[in-house]
C-alpha cells in the first residue's frame, strides 16, 4: 500500500482542481446504474403484476397501469441522459487531468536538458509524455469513479432489498462484495506483473520504432534494416504475448462476474420463492428483486479490468516519476540576484568533468574576454571547446571555479536574463519542422520583417530563401532535412544575429561551408558582431587574423596561440 502511495500519490495532487467535474461524472455514473436497476426491477414487477392482475377481472380493472409505466419511462430516460452526462463529465475531467499532468511533466523535463536527459532516448521520453501519461486515466476513469459507484450502488441496493427481505439483501451484498472486491483483487494480482511488463514492452517497441525511423538512411546504407525489422518483430511478439495474457485474465474475470451474478440471482430466487410460499413476499416483488440483482452487477463489471491494469498504471507512474524526481544539474534563480555590468566574460579557475572518475575536461581554466573583444578558440577534437561554451550558457555548472558575466556570477542570473545576454550557435543547432521564418522567429518572436531579412542577408541566406517556392514561408522539413548542412548552419547563424545579444558563442559556425561562402560568412559575421563579445570555436584558419585573440584549449587548459 505504501509503495502504491509513493508510486501514484504524486499524481493525485493534479486531480484536486478537477474535483467538481470528477464528482459530477461519478454522480452521473451512479444515477445511470441506479436507473438501470430501477428500470429492470420496475419493468419485471410491472409485467408480472400486470399478468397477475389480469387473471381476475376485478383486479384487472383496479390495477393502476399509469404510474408504473411513467416510472419505467422515467428510469429509461434518466438512464440515457445520465450515461451521456457521465461520459461527458468524467472524460472531460480525465482530459483536464491528463493535460495538467502533461504540462507538469514537461515542466520537469526542461531543466533536465541537456545534462540528465541525455541518459534517456528520445523515443522513450516521447513514450513517457504520451503513453505513460495516458495510462494514468485508469486511476479516476476506470478505478476511482467505478469503485465509488459500485460501493454506493451496493449500499443503496442493499437498503432497498432489505425493505422486502433482509436475507435476500444480505445474500446479494455478499455476492456483490465477491464480484466487486474479490474478483478485482484476483485480477489485480494476476495482471500486476504482466501489466508492468506491458508498459515496459510498449515503451521499448515505440523507442525502437522511433529510432529506426530517425536512423533509416544509416540502416539502409549499411544493410542493417532487416536486422532492425527483426528486432521490432521480436519485441512486437513479446508485447502480443503480454496482451494475450491480459485478455485471458480479462475474459476469466468477466466470466467470474457473470457466474457470480447468475449465482446471486439464483440464490435470491431460491430465498424469494421460499418467502412467496410463506406469503411474506408476492410474485411480482420476487421478479423485481431478481431482475434488480441482475442489473446491480452492472456496477461491479468494470472493476476487475481496472485493477488488472493497475500494474501497468503503476509502471507508467514509476517511469514518469523517474524523470520528475531526477534532480536538475542546473537550477536558475527565479530573479537575478546581480546585474551584469558590461559584457565581459571571465572564467575563473573553472574545472569541469562529465564523470567524477575520469580526468576533468577543463582544469582550472582562466580566461578573460573584455567586452567587445572577439576571441577564437582552437583545439583538437575532443579537447573540450564545446564543453566550455556549454558552461557559459549554463547547460552544465562548473565543478569548481566561477564564470562571470559583466562581473556577476552567471549562477546569480535568472534564466531569461542569462539568455538575454548570451546567445549560442551550437554545433547541432536544431531546425524545427516549420517554415524558415518560424525557425528564425524562435530567436525573437516579435522580430519585424526587415530584421528577419537583414539577419538572413548577413548569414548569406537571403538569396536562397527568396528563391524558395514559398519564400520565407517554405517548410524546411523534419530537423531541417530540406536544407543542406551548410544552409542549416547559416540559418542557425541568422537566428543568433536576430537575437541581438551582447555576447555570442559560436561553435564552428562555418563548418560544412565551401571556402567562398565560408569567407563571405566570416566577413559578415565579423561585421555584424562588431561591438559584441564573441567566443568563436573553430577548426578552420579562415578569418583568424581578424580576431582580436586566438586561444588554444589543450589538456584542459587555455593558452594564447603563439
Ligand atoms: N554529454 C557528455 N557526456 C559525457 N562526456 C562528454 C559529453 N559531451 C562531451 N563529452 C566528452 O568531453 C570531451 C570534450 O568534448 P567536447 O565536445 O567539449 O570537445 P570539442 O573540443 O568541442 O570537440 P570537437 O572539436 O570534436 O567538437 C570529449 O572527450 C567528449 O567525449
Automatic annotation (TrEMBL):
Gene Ontology cellular component terms for the protein in this record: plasma membrane
ABC transmembrane type-1 domain boundaries: 23-312
Classification via Pfam families: ABC_membrane (PF00664), ABC_tran (PF00005)
Membrane-crossing segments per the record: 21-40, 139-161, 167-187, 251-271, 286-310
InterPro entries: AAA+_ATPase, ABC1_TM_dom, ABC1_TM_sf, ABC_CydC/D, ABC_transporter-like_ATP-bd, ABC_transporter-like_CS, P-loop_NTPase, Type_1_exporter
The entry's keywords: ATP-binding, Membrane, Nucleotide-binding, Transmembrane, Transmembrane helix
SMART domains, per database record: AAA
The ABC transporter domain, residue ranges: 345-562
Compartment list: Cell membrane
Gene Ontology biological process terms in this record: cell redox homeostasis; glutathione transmembrane transport
Main subcellular location: membrane
Membrane protein topology class: Multi-pass membrane protein
Cross-referenced PANTHER family: ATP-BINDING CASSETTE SUB-FAMILY B MEMBER 10, MITOCHONDRIAL, ATP-DEPENDENT PERMEASE MDL1, MITOCHONDRIAL
Protein name: Thiol reductant ABC exporter subunit CydC
Organism: Desulfonema ishimotonii
Lineage: Bacteria, Pseudomonadati, Thermodesulfobacteriota, Desulfobacteria, Desulfobacterales
